[in-house]
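Dear colleagues,

As part of the handover before I leave the project, I'm documenting each prediction I ran so the next person doesn't have to rerun anything. This entry is a single chain, and its sequence is reproduced below.
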Amino acid sequence: MSVPELITARRSAWAVVVLPLLLAGILIAGVGEGQRTTTSTDSLPDGYDSTQGTALLDDLPDQATSAAVVLFTADAGELTREQVAAIRDAAPDLGAAGEVQPSQDGTAVLTVVPVRSGSATEVADEVEDLRSAARAAAPEGVTAQVTGPAAVQADLAAVFDGANTRLLLATALVVAFLLVITYRSPFLWLVPLVVVGVADRLAAVAATQLMAGLHVAWDESTTGILSVLVFGAGTDYALLLISRYRDELRLEESRHRAMAAALRRTAEAVLASATTVVLGLLTLLLSAFPTTRGLGVACAVGIVVAAVFALVVLPAALVCFGRWVFWPRVPHVGQAVTSESPTLFHRIGDRVARHPGRVVAGTLVLLGALSVGVGSISLGLSQADQFLDTPEAIAASERLAESYPAGVADPTQVVTADDADRVLDTVRSTAGVESARVSQSGGGVSVIDTVLAGSDTDATIERLRGELAAYDDTHVTGSSAQRIDESDAQDHDLELIVPIILALVLAGLVVLLRSVVAPVLLVLTVVATYVAAMGASWWLFAGPLGFDAMDSGVPLLAFLFLVALGVDYNIFLVTRAREESTGAGSRGGMLRALSATGGVITSAGILLAAVFAVLGVLPLVVLAQLGTVICLGVLLDALVVRTLLVPAIALVLGDRFWWPRSVSARMQDSPVHR
């Protein structure tokens, strides 16, 4: 008995369903997601100067490696002497590290409070306590707000407070809604939704436990993106399987044999797709960012779990129900199968076949027009630009900038294990430095808070690094320095990882199709889709959405997901075309494949695009931008590239599309697809 027959057999199907679901339930409820202690360098690139400086801060004995700035501002006019005196008296109770600093315009007073390092939750709790204490200590007529690096970290953590639950519910609702529309059945949608939902929770447990065991870093966004990917890919696989199962039920009386046949003919495409995506995701292990490496591991585990549940649990679950599960559109033996019925995509195929060269030219012009915006993309978000909504830390920072010189709330930090006095003298003498002072010392480490003058702070930071290169274990860090290093590291990741992803995808397609021309063309179409999606997204960001820049991490992650997932739809199409071409020839095979897979791939594309758009429920710009780029790219791929461009290219090239593989031409001129 073959594996598909074992999975779908009358006697074994229930066991194939119950045992994996029971094991998954035990792991989800009994083991739970993995836990780890976060570090200060989890999201910083390995080996860079700011990362080394941040790591050196951990050697301070009191672990107060971050700071919050408490800002007191007059509700109207200037602060009175009595109000300033009351704030000065309250500052020690807040844990202030030094004297309060009145502004020159007399409307504000600030004080700096050290915050102990720890997890995002611990920092958020400490900042929230500080905010409550500051509001209680503020005299009448004075507003107290907390900003600074620790407050920004706390507000970022607040974004993810309950976010994974909201994201999961939103994703499940979107998937359920689109499945109901796709299947037009009150029952069928429940089966794939339950199977994929269990796969999602199991993937979260398996991925986080694996990362905890391997000491791989991850952050709050990792499991959110993982859920979106598992729901999207798992449902895509389910749509492909169920579509083929419906076709087989029109040819076979036994639903068990029909599912076995559907599984045999679907497994190759799903396995090839999943393998391509997993290999692509694992290239993120080459990233300089620890949390990006964690995202690659987590999502690779998620795809494996999704594919296993789609190819094992889902087929067994479906055959446990009768044909009635498709009601009211129950398939019966003798009905025309999809590839033989006059579907919308059958008509689209006929129109593409009339003028394939014009279709190729037209779609390339469209993609080229959408790609124009790529040349205008500005990368790199400031702290204030990271939030869709304005939290207290950002609002207070903007108010602070009205009364104090730039850099007071978030100074650049020089961290040194060398002679602090000598380093301080060098820092003060560096062009572009307005002021500098030793703010912390202990454990052989000193921190010099440095306020930079002028607008070209990046150049000043580079000068500082050059001047301090002669000192042992001395580094420049802080948010501005980290932003510079993160941008450099993102560029390095792009240059390193993108060619590897393309090579892996190309190699996988060559092995799958046993062809050279088709894989090269398919990879080029997917890259064109990515560039067009980036260009179109930038016009959307810079125009209606009002973003000044795109997060520097978006291009790589968008490329990975669009190339890996975009190849999915081409794999689904061309593997069916290869199957059909053995009887219909290359021309007829491609048209039959488009007719047979057009509906399901379009549904899968719309569903996947909608699922990634759900990332916008989180008020964080990077996730909203990533979701938008992937959403537009998937729609372009499913509706334009896979529907028009790839079939048109195949029709123009004919048998050359499959070179060096040859196809049967017995039905090349079949009247059905002439």
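Residues 1-31+160-335 form a domain with the Multidrug efflux transporter AcrB transmembrane fold fold (CATH 1.20.1640.10). Residues 554-613 form the longest helix (60 residues).

All the best with the project,
I.
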